[in-house]
Design the sequence.
């Protein structure tokens, strides 16, 4: 499989960093965004307003025309989870079998659909895939070592995509456990908000370690209930991403939690803009857990805080007064 032309939908920090990754071996990369004025400025100045200080590779062509992606050998969809359906539904006709790779970490509200399910619904005939893992756009743009997971139903497709996007410093490991990779990315965002609340409340390093560990237990339970493989959940896209986002202020989800823990009332960005994905995933994650009898008290507390059904102190007290039980 040859991926000579790659389209990236979404010119935020992560989309721009991935476009530069894809262009490293001289591939033609189309970088799509909605705003024609910004696209023109990026073509002239070779810099993204969302990723300042990093030059856009000369093989990357910024555009605001979706028709420009029609000839792509693969498409990376790098838009927020709640905006993904609208973007892929507007895609021009792609060749059958073209991989369309979701790079968002979330579950669609209302439908409870994972990202690859939305791609399959909206773009019949393509190969839905997912890229996720512990990564910050700035690190990737700087060429700092980063490893992620790229999953597709066909192992040969997943491996070919990993080779096409990979480099000495950006290393995608391939998998066929699409659902497991999606679950890790979606659930860890919610748990990172909880970790931020612990930090913002000043509850200490011991509490942070306990929260992350028990949160991971929730992620494992949810993943098993929805068909994920255990090796995926303890890998880069599960445990790896959880460790990163539960411990770094670079994480939007962690930073949102810190603000909540300090008693602030941060405004959530509108869906489709720069945002903490976990804020929009929390309630649907809890709904899906309840539907299959999965106990997720930490995720439930985050959802209750975000929905203003519980205050931070009440949520913490509810968690601390749960009955003692065996670990598991």
Sequence:
């Amino acid at each position: 499989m040859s991926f000579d032309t790659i389209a990236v939908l979404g010119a935020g920090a992560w989309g721009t960093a991935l476009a530069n990754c894809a262009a490293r071996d001289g591939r033609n990369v189309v970088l799509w965004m909605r705003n024609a004025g910004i696209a023109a400025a990026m073509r002239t100045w070779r810099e993204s307003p969302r990723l300042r200080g990093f030059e856009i590779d000369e093989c990357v062509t910024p555009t605001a025309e979706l028709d420009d992606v029609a000839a792509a050998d693969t498409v990376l969809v790098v838009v927020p989870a709640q905006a993904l359906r609208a973007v892929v539904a507007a895609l021009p006709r792609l060749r059958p079998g073209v991989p369309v790779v979701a790079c968002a970490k979330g579950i669609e509200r209302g439908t409870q659909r994972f990202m690859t399910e939305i791609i399959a619904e909206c773009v019949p005939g393509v190969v839905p895939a997912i890229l996720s893992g512990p990564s910050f756009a700035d690190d990737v743009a700087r060429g700092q070592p980063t490893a992620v997971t790229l999953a597709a139903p066909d192992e040969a497709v997943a491996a070919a995509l990993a080779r096409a996007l990979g480099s000495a410093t950006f290393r995608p490991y391939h998998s066929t456990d699409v659902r497991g990779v999606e679950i890790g990315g979606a659930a860890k965002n919610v748990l990172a908000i909880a970790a931020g609340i612990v930090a913002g409340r000043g509850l200490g390093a011991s509490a942070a370690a306990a929260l992350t560990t028990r949160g991971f237990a929730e992620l494992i339970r949810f993943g098993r209930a929805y068909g994920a493989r255990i090796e995926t959940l303890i890998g880069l896209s599960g445990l790896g991403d959880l460790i990163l986002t539960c411990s770094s202020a670079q994480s939007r989800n962690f930073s949102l939690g810190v603000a909540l823990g300090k008693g602030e009332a941060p405004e959530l960005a509108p869906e489709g803009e720069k945002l903490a994905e976990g804020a929009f995933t929390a309630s649907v994650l809890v709904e899906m857990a309840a539907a299959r009898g999965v106990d997720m008290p930490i995720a439930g507390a985050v959802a209750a805080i975000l929905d203003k059904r519980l205050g931070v102190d009440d949520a913490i007290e509810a968690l601390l007064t749960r009955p003692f039980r065996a670990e598991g």
User: Anything to note?
Assistant: The CA atoms of residues 102 and 130 lie 5 Å apart. Residues 269-273 have pLDDT under 50 and may be disordered.
